[in-house]
Automatic annotation (TrEMBL):
Domain F-box as annotated: residue spans: 13-58
Superkingdom of origin: Eukaryota
PROSITE patterns: FBOX
Protein name (database record): F-box domain-containing protein
Lineage: Eukaryota, Viridiplantae, Streptophyta, Embryophyta, Tracheophyta
Pfam family, one: FBA_1
Gene3D superfamilies in UniProt: 1.20.1280.50
Cited InterPro entries: F-box-assoc_dom_typ1, F-box-assoc_interact_dom, F-box-like_dom_sf, F-box_dom, SCF_F-box_component
CDD domains, sorted: F-box_AtFBW1-like
Length: 406
């Protein structure tokens, strides 16, 4: 190496020392989480910047704004993370850090700011950041003998999100006819809080069944789509919301134009609001309604209509089956929607402009894992949001003695 080359490199290093921190933050805020974790080892100043809560929020907001989603594909025994939902060619299999001593079924019950709420058949709940690998165990609210006997786990309703304080992530669990419990990561307690005097009986009334037991988080509240008895022979669908801030339930108005011909409905998230995916059994078409102004009935708007014909034209069997039930995984951008056939691993990208479907080919490893098995998909935003800060509040043993009702 010549002296001239050495001098040039030294000058380059000296120049980088004068790059404003604001510019470094802005540049790094667009980098993937995996790269940022590696960059933290480069220098102490970068480590400080990347660990700063202000930067973590900046990076998170950038990811949300640009729809930078990753995908969890999972069944009872396996969970895979796909970094680019539009191409499943590259995958990784992060370790789910449950430590039960046995293999149990678990489900993804919610996602918020890149954190995943995992619920097993029995034992501890878990909050997991698949991007950083951090994980904490949380005692189950229904691990006592009475709770297990009165309410099976799969009939519960769950929600994950936050209220006015974004750093205070909360879990709500609803079981039985009026048992509402909330766990707060910032409460300083290892116990679930029973919500006394909630208006759950007034709002729920004579509920018939739940379309989605895992709530959709938006605007500080968790939402469930449910069916209710209006009379002994008449049913009605409603969206029920639980507000983490005021700890109250409310009913979100449904679109006026829905009819009884809608045989299949799913609630999903659209930006910072909610949307409905509805299949009309009379027209054999699907519609996506979005609530453009949260909480306002008149703001419901039919954003897309997905006819059945393009499915027949663009996909081989079994996609031509008119009884296919799709669910929205995520909106990639203003033009594409990632859909999944319920129960199976089939992922399809629908282009709203060309009205064409593109089947996403699974990696061979995934085909071997999910071949002809029940499989679920869940979208999340990769983030640096830490959860190790809450370890001193959580009892990792999930001892039954600690799970007594409050």
């Amino acid at each position: 190496m010549t002296n001239h080359t050495k001098t040039t490199k030294l000058r380059s290093i000296e120049k980088t020392e004068y790059v404003p921190d604001e510019l470094i933050r802005e540049i790094l805020s667009h980098a993937p989480v995996k790269s940022l974790i590696q960059l933290k080892r480069v220098s102490k100043p970068w480590h400080t910047i990347i660990n700063d809560p202000t930067f973590i929020n900046l990076h998170l907001n950038q990811a949300i704004q640009h729809n930078n989603f990753s995908l969890l594909l999972y069944n009872s025994n396996h969970i895979y993370s796909i970094h680019d939902p539009t191409s499943t060619a590259t995958t990784e299999c992060p370790s789910v850090p449950f430590n039960h001593g046995h293999r149990d079924y678990y489900d993804v019950a919610g996602s918020c700011d890149g954190l995943i709420l995992l619920i097993p058949y029995r034992g501890c709940f878990g909050i997991w950041n698949p991007s950083t690998g951090e994980f904490i165990s949380i005692p189950s609210p229904y691990c006592s003998e009475n709770y297990i006997l009165t309410m099976p786990w799969h009939e519960n309703m769950y929600g994950f999100g936050y209220g006015s304080n974004r750093s205070d992530y909360k879990i709500v669990s609803i079981f039985g006819t009026g048992n509402v419990k909330v766990f707060s990561t910032r409460s300083g307690s290892r116990m679930w809080k029973t919500i006394e005097g909630s208006n759950i009986h007034v709002v729920f009334g004579d509920s018939l069944y739940i379309y989605n037991s895992s709530g959709i988080f938006a605007r500080g509240a968790v939402h469930w789509l449910m069916c209710f008895f209006v009379t002994s022979t008449e049913e009605e669908d409603r969206i029920i919301a639980y507000d983490f801030g005021c700890e109250e339930f409310s009913t979100i108005p449904m679109p006026d134009r829905l009819t009884n011909n809608n045989e299949y409905k799913r609630l999903s998230k659209w930006g910072e609001s909610i949307c409905l995916f509805i299949k009309d059994c009379r027209e054999w078409s699907s519609h996506i309604f979005v609530m453009k102004e949260y909480g306002v009935r008149d703001s419901w708007s039919k954003l897309y209509t997905i006819p059945e014909a393009p499915i027949q034209q663009n996909l081989e069997a079994p996609y031509t089956n008119l009884r296919i039930k799709w669910s929205i995984v995520c909106f990639i951008n203003d033009e594409k929607i990632l859909l999944k056939q319920e129960g199976l691993y089939n992922l399809v990208l629908y282009d709203t402009r060309s009205c064409k479907f593109v089947e996403l080919e699974l990696h061979e490893d995934l085909k071997n894992v999910f071949n002809e098995r029940y499989c679920s998909a869940y979208a999340y935003v990769p983030s640096l949001v830490p959860i190790k800060n809450y370890e001193d509040l959580i009892d990792p043993c999930c001892s039954p003695q600690l799970l007594r009702p409050m």
